[in-house]
Design brief:
With 298 residues, this protein is mainly alpha-helical. The protein has helices spanning 15-28, 31-61, 63-78, 80-93, 100-128, 139-180, 185-211, 219-247, 257-286; strands at residues 215-217, 291-293. 78% of the residues lie in helices and 2% in strands. The protein has a two-stranded antiparallel sheet with strand order 1-2. Helix 4 packs across helix 9. It is globular and about 55 Å long.
Length: 298
């Protein structure tokens, strides 16, 4: 790869060459295969992931409220029919009419399933950042990786809670502004929603880039890469919502349409995430910051 290293700091005029180099590296990393793998495990992980997030955040905010918010978000991204199917899945997986042994086995299965998508996302990011597989991979490392993946689920729950708190505060602020300046409230609400979404998603991507791969990366690189990725993700989310709303690609598959839509949405979203991860890697190399493998992976 022809990479021109700059000794100074990043400048806006460097952005076009960074994007071009990122695209070439992203295309060479076989992103469609990687995104398909993560999407497959996302479908398997979805019930456990939803149950854990709902119960963690619901213990503070209320399970019914959290389910309602998640259903609205899913409906906006994948359509109402898909949201209703996923809501039914959430209700079914939380059925408490089980024996103690069945409950224990069910919880263990949910935790293992929910962490699967992050585990395979870790493997994909390692490949994108040219981190070779550990030569001393062991059962202990697998358990630690799964524990780290579970920590990301809790982080998502925490960020979701923060998002709800901020949304509530913004709603109260919008009501106040509407009473004073009713004509501009729509624009203010739209701008605040975008800013909050980008900020929260940036934090999530920063945590993923910093702690999920088997690599050492500086926070300066993390924040730049996470911000770029979150902007692309918000734009992609909007475009995907339009595509799914107009084209309805899942309608062709009948009862399996929900699974197909989830696979498509996660796959497309991963393509954006991997592009942002590739940008982070190119940026780190270009400006001499570097992404180094952990000692156990050398």
């Amino acid at each position: 790869m022809n990479s021109q290293k700059h000794t100074g700091t990043f400048k806006l005029k460097h952005l076009p060459s960074l994007v071009i180099e990122t695209y070439k590296a992203w295309d060479a990393s076989d992103p469609f295969r990687l995104s398909a793998v993560v999407a497959y495990y996302a479908v398997l992980s979805l019930p456990g992931l939803l149950v854990i997030v709902i119960n963690v955040v619901g213990s503070i905010w209320g399970v019914d409220i959290i389910q309602g918010h998640l259903t609205d978000e899913i409906s906006g991204a994948l359509g109402r029919d898909t949201a209703d199917s996923i809501q039914a899945m959430m209700v079914e997986t939380q059925n408490n009419d089980k024996s103690t042994l069945a409950t224990i086995l069910g919880v263990a299965t949910l935790v293992f399933g929910a962490t699967g998508v992050f585990y395979h996302l870790q493997l994909s990011l390692n490949q994108i950042w040219r981190i070779a597989p550990s030569s001393n991979s062991s059962f202990k490392k697998m358990i630690l990786d799964r524990a780290r993946s579970f920590a990301f689920i809790l982080a998502i729950g925490f960020l979701l809670l923060i998002s709800f708190l901020i949304t509530t505060a913004i709603s109260a602020l919008n009501d106040y502004i509407r009473s004073i300046l009713p004509d501009i409230i729509v624009y203010i609400a739209f701008a605040l929603d975008i800013i909050v979404s980008i900020a929260i998603i940036t934090v999530l991507f920063a945590l993923i880039f910093k702690y999920l791969p088997d690599a050492k990366i500086k926070w300066k690189t993390v924040w730049i890469g996470a911000l770029i990725t979150s902007v692309l993700f918000v734009i992609g989310k909007f475009l995907l919502g339009l595509y799914f709303g107009e084209a309805k690609p899942g309608s062709t598959y009948g009862a399996a349409g929900t699974v197909v839509l989830i696979l498509l949405w996660v796959s497309y979203s991963c393509l954006i995430l991997f592009f942002g991860a590739e940008f982070t890697w190119v940026f780190s190399k270009r400006y001499g910051l570097g992404i180094q493998p952990n000692a156990k992976n050398k």
